[in-house]
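User: Study the fold:
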Amino acid sequence: MASQIDGEKRGQNCSLSPVNLHSGFEFGELRRQRVVCGWNHKKEIVESWRDAMDAKQKMLFWVIIPASTSDKDRSPNRVGHISLTYQKDPPDLEMANPDRSVMEISNLFILPEYRSFGFARKAMAAVEELAKVEPYGSPNCKALTLNTASKRYWDDDGVEWRGLWLKMGLEVPERGRSLEQWYEKMGYVKYKEEPTFEETALDGTTLKWIASFLRKNI
């Protein structure tokens, strides 16, 4: 049965469906997925996303796949989520412009049990299409942006790069498996790097991780 279900998942496409954070169920499910993700899971953060959606500054989507033939209720599976941001706070027109000529993709997350089926790549392709479609995007959208940890944390042996994982008490990752490289394969090009993410080391000090900012013209 497990192999049959896995085969169904591999053959499925995913679709995007707007998140309704005024629904108690969907608010709770998004928080649950963020806890699994490991960051941005505090209630006040999800509330701030709801406020940004109400202000037309951000749109969150569920990554949906059809129910498996083994699912009794036949309800669609929310296997992850992704967002489009139209306005940054503080403003950063290079990343997201309120006129929707430039929009940021963020919060891409797929639940671990669904990660081997290509849903992240399909979700990216779907949100790129929606970026050109009202009311979620605009026909005038010229570019999409995103940011992620620099690939040097995967590939550079320096203490300040791969060595940072040990300072965090984390396993050093496999070379060549960074998200930056994954996005590059989908046509995103780095246009800058800067310190962005803060994490706490084992000794209690604050570490500032370098983010790579990428852009794709559409």
Summary: Residues 1-8 have pLDDT under 50 and may be disordered. Helices lie at 2-11, 24-37, 43-54, 119-130, 152-155, 163-167, 179-184. Residues 145-218 form one domain.
